[in-house]
Structures are given as structure tokens and as C-alpha cells.
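Input C-alpha cells:
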């Protein structure tokens, strides 16, 4: 019986399909492409955020430099944190649409074909 209470016609086949899928060249390609994007971008963003936090904590003079009216360096850098988040999201969506989605679609079609 499966989780919906229906009889499973061939127990174990789903697990075998997923194990075979994880071992497939397409899945390895998908994982490799994802990691090549996510790890460097995450490291860069975390470094950028850490620099901002360290500046806010230890460089009060620099962060309080007025740029225009009541707008100072700290405020601008803080707002740029939000901007960088949106830029990273946009870049990831473009990257995924171009490099990840076609491979994921091939994998999905392969898995669905094997389960029929």
C-alpha cells in the first residue's frame, strides 16, 4: 500500500527510478550547473553583507558621511543590499531558464516515461 491507501503494483520501482535518475549524466549536469552558479554568487553576497555589517559596526565615521541632505553612506549601502538581492534573483531566474530548466525538463520526461 502506498501513502494514498492504494496498492502499489510493483513495490521498489519508484526507488529504482530515482536512484537511476540521480546517477544519470543529465542529473549530474544539472547539479554541476546549479552549483557553479549558486556557490560563487552566495559567497559574493555573504561577503558583501559581512562587509556592510562590519562597516556599520566599526566604521561609524565612514558610514555617517552625508551624501545629500540626511542621506548618508550607511543608508545607501543598506539600500544596496536590497538592490543586490533583486539583481541576484533576476540573474538566477535567467540562468535557470537558460541552463537548468531544459535539463530538468529532460529528466522529468525521462522519469515520467519510466514510471508509465
Amino acid at each position: 500500500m502506498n501513502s494514498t491507501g492504494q496498492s502499489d503494483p510493483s513495490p521498489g520501482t519508484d526507488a529504482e527510478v530515482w536512484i537511476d535518475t540521480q546517477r544519470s549524466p543529465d542529473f549530474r549536469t544539472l547539479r554541476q550547473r546549479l552549483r557553479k552558479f549558486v556557490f560563487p554568487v552566495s559567497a559574493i553576497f555573504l561577503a558583501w553583507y559581512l562587509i556592510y555589517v562590519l562597516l556599520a559596526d566599526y566604521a561609524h565615521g565612514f558610514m555617517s558621511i552625508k551624501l545629500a541632505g540626511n542621506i548618508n553612506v550607511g543608508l545607501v549601502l543598506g539600500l544596496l543590499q536590497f538592490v543586490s538581492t533583486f539583481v541576484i534573483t533576476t540573474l538566477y531566474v535567467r540562468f535557470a531558464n537558460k541552463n537548468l530548466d531544459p535539463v530538468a525538463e529532460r529528466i522529468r520526461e525521462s522519469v515520467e516515461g519510466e514510471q508509465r
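The longest helix spans residues 73-115. The chain is about 80% helix and 5% strand.
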